[in-house]
Design brief:
The protein has about 160 residues and is mainly beta. It has one domain: Sortase (Sortase, Chain: A), CATH 2.40.260.10. It has 2 helices and 8 strands, in the order H-E-E-E-E-E-E-H-E-E. The longest helix has 20 residues.
């Protein structure tokens, strides 16, 4: 006598559930592919332990896309470089930088000459990007209260001039 075993609908459902769950874990939990940036230089701020690669950014539709974990640079004027980064990653400790501290960018030494926190709406990008007589960098990151979409109410701006 031969016994035939029938699978109950509950057993089939549980089996399919575990199969789909295993596939989800394999596909859904893969690490995101890292964005590869072309590295143009390095920024070092010893007082906060920052050493970051810097990539050159291009203006697209009037905006600069900030890299997730490194510094981005933009320049369209003589002797002025604009550096940006996220306050939650690369510039997490930037608020601790003090006046007259030294930093290094693109193998040159710079002294911090001003530190300002401005409302986002009151920032003049044409002024920030205007040319200067001495090599100058402007570092900017989000500050103030967090807004929806990862933005913030203010910007921390640090100006440093070459020695």
């Amino acid at each position: 006598m031969e016994l035939k075993r029938k699978l109950s609908p509950k057993t089939v459902f549980v089996g399919l559930y575990f199969l789909f769950f295993a596939v989800y874990l394999i596909i859904g939990l893969r690490p995101a592919e890292a964005v590869q940036y072309e590295i143009s230089s390095k920024l070092t701020i010893p007082s906060i332990g920052l050493v970051s690669d810097v990539t050159t950014l291009e203006l697209r539709d009037g905006k600069l896309d900030t890299p997730d974990t490194i510094v981005g640079s933009f320049s369209n004027a003589e002797n002025k470089t604009f550096l940006i980064g996220h306050s939650t990653t690369v510039f997490k400790e930037l608020h601790k930088v003090k006046l007259n501290e030294m930093l290094k960018y693109d193998d040159k030494s710079y002294r911090v000459t001003s530190i300002d926190m401005l409302e986002k709406a009151k920032i003049s990008m044409s002024e920030i990007l205007s040319s200067t007589e001495k090599d100058t960098i402007i570092i900017m990151t989000c500050a103030g209260e967090l807004l929806d979409g990862g933005d913030a109410t203010h910007r921390l701006l640090i100006k440093a001039v070459s020695e």
